[in-house]
Amino acid sequence: MGRKKLERFADNAVRFNIVENGKEKFGKMAGKWRSEHFQNEHDLVVELGCGRGEYTTGLGEKFPDKNFVGVDIKGSRIWVGSSYAIAHNLDNIAFLRTQIEQIDAHFGEDEVSELWITFPDPRPKDKDEKRRLTAPRFMEMYKKLIAKDGWLKFKTDNTPLFDYTLELIETGQIKVKNLSHTHNLYESEFMDEHFGVKTKYEQLFYDKGEDIKYLKFQFA
Question: What is the pTM of this model?
């Protein structure tokens, strides 16, 4: 492991805005993010696969009256978002380092007001279907964590993954209400929901001419 990563991991180990294995709060925050970490009653917004945290920090800057938690397993990437939040005094932002398969151990039932899935690995092989972050087994997990009136929002450049997710909804494998979607976010009525924030990968795909797909719904 390179020295740069080791230095970042050492920083992460002592940062208040990072919850990870080995820290007292790890595995004990379900249902307690507002009361014990943010110490307020603001809505809790969670981004899965946050990477370097561009979306988490971008939304956190625009909505100081909401709490944001970015989730990723890559500690070196989370360090980037954590550093930005610290440098800009964004106390409404935190990061959780864990596998997404285990998020139900870290968030309580109905605790999340809004959940974002941003540009996940599309897992195109049939054998990897269960590993797609929009697969039914993950959706069942999200349903328990998202409040009854909360939203799930999904952005991707990958058409097969987007269409796969829509098919799950249309065939009733995922039961939702108030579904809205578009295959071209930047040319749609939902452009305002972009909030002027792009992840590194979103910018990369957009520059290559890829249309950005977007959907949102509430669980039925």
Answer: 0.96
